């Protein structure tokens, strides 16, 4: 790679189902956040290659009671990000509730509270379009068969121009069952270009699918289709679902995801041009590029979403999300540095997957080492805190207060089918209640745990292979908890969280 080129993926972590928009010289991206809070991450770039995380659009998931406990694969699915009438708009589908919309005058907010545009089971992947020529507004969405019994079709609606409601019952505008070889058509993004209505939509499933393009002179069809991006002879499986954006100088680019197991859905940038027959051509004549000339935009310094954190004043950076809507007092602010997590009492102390108070960030897509310092400030027998790799299976290393008052270093794990955790290594004494914790994440998301309780780092237990949930990549997490009981159970202090390349 040279200073004139970039290499994919441009976002090497689980920024699932990305959508992108340009406003002036700035590009903004959002992604699925499922059941984590805050949700709807907001990323910013000036060159489409270097991205930073500038905030979240959704403080809490609604209705709040539905997300008081983790629902890892539910919640915010496949948002669309648009700019219209001097406002930013995000539409998304909650497969159990319907289509929501929020908007804001600036990307950093304030964002409106979620407005339920259309209630219903299985309504997913909505995308609006405001037709600047006619003043009409439209919405297209897909279907989740798990909730509705319907899939492989796109439904279109006329929409109120203020985005508050739909004006009809909807019509199937693309039926994937009528296209030979097509299945699991979803994730539509709707555009107006050169006198045509365009829908860019993936099909074929997240791991093996392709990117399709559809066009029609009228919004309600009929549409003709073409495959415009597929794996071909590359190692980029299932390249699809994303957004088209045009630079100020008129260059076209397409951002999409690739499913990478425990790493989730990483984001690639593809060049895009219009062929002699006026159909879009993505990548290298329809195949994903590994390395390519950078967009013709002013050079920017290298940047990526933050991972490290010193937790100044007890505050955690915007890269962190809870596994459900946050509760009061889980993290307390103070005058120094370091994250102070309350040892929240829970009847599910044996299973991190069921806890809402795990503070997480995305697992990096490249080999790396995650490290944090921990002090357990709790005299409660059974109180514990640690550093975890969290997915359908999980593993963690940390400190636990014993019934005899001593603090032990413990390392535990649970398989995907297990209902609770068990020891991955023999507990050993951590006399001062302090430890440095480390997870080395190698190829294939294989994790090696180690800890330093005052005598240098020592490896602990066998290698643990991180696993995703169904739609969500594995997460790194910090937690503090205690068994069910009475009164305050103390806290744990985390300092100097670092992720370094291996």
From TrEMBL:
Positions of transmembrane segments: none
Protein name as catalogued: Family 43 glycosylhydrolase
Keyword annotations from UniProtKB, A to Z: Glycosidase, Hydrolase
Region (Disordered): 286-317
A Pfam family: GH43_C2
Domain Beta-xylosidase C-terminal Concanavalin A-like residues, every copy: 309-499
Family: Belongs to the glycosyl hydrolase 43 family.
């Amino acid at each position: 790679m040279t200073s004139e080129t970039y290499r994919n993926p441009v976002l090497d972590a689980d920024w699932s189902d990305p959508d992108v928009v340009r406003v002036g010289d700035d590009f903004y991206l959002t992604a699925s956040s499922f059941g984590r809070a805050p949700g709807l991450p907001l990323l910013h770039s000036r060159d489409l290659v270097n991205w930073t995380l500038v905030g979240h659009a959704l403080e809490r998931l609604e209705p709040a009671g539905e997300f008081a406990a983790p629902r890892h694969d539910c919640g915010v699915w496949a948002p669309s990000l648009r700019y219209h009438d001097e406002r930013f708009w995000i539409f998304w589908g909650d497969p159990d509730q319907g289509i929501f919309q929020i908007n804001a005058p600036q990307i950093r907010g304030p964002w409106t509270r979620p407005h339920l545009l259309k209630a219903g089971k299985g309504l997913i992947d909505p995308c609006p379009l405001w037709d600047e020529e006619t003043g009409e507004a439209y919405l297209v969405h897909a279907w989740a068969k798990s909730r509705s019994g319907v899939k492989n079709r796109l439904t279109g609606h006329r929409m109120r121009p203020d985005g508050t409601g739909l004006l009809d019952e909807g019509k199937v505008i693309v039926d994937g069952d009528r296209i030979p070889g097509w299945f699991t058509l979803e994730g539509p993004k709707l555009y107006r270009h050169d006198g045509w209505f365009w829908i860019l939509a993936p099909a074929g499933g997240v791991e093996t699918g392709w990117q399709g393009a559809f066009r029609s002179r009228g919004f309600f069809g009929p549409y003709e289709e073409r495959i415009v991006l597929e794996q071909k002879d590359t190692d980029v499986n299932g390249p699809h679902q994303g957004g088209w954006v045009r630079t100020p100088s008129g260059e076209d680019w397409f951002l999409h995801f690739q499913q990478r197991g425990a790493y989730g859905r990483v984001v690639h940038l593809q060049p895009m041009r219009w062929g002699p027959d006026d159909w879009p051509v993505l990548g290298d004549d329809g195949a994903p590029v590994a390395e390519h000339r950078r967009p013709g935009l002013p050079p920017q310094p290298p940047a990526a979403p933050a991972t490290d954190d010193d937790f100044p004043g007890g505050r955690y950076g915007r890269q962190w999300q809870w596994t459900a809507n946050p509760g009061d007092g889980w993290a307390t602010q103070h005058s120094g540095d370091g994250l102070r997590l309350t040892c929240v009492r829970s009847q599910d102390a044996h299973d991190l997957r069921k806890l809402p108070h795990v503070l997480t960030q995305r697992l990096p897509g490249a080999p790396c080492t995650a490290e944090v310092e921990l002090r357990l400030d709790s005299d409660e027998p059974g109180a514990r805190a640690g550093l975890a790799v969290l997915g359908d299976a999980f593993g963690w290393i940390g400190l636990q207060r014993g019934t005899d008052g001593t603090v032990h270093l413990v390392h535990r794990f649970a398989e995907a089918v297990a209902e609770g955790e068990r020891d991955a290594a023999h507990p050993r004494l951590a006399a001062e209640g302090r430890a440095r914790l480390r997870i080395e994440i190698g190829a294939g998301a294989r994790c090696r745990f180690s800890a330093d309780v005052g005598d240098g780092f020592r490896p602990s237990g066998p290698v643990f292979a991180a696993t995703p949930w169904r739609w969500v990549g594995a997460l790194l997490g910090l937690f503090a908890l205690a068994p069910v009981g009475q009164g305050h159970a103390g806290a744990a202090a985390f300092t100097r969280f670092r992720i370094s390349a291996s």
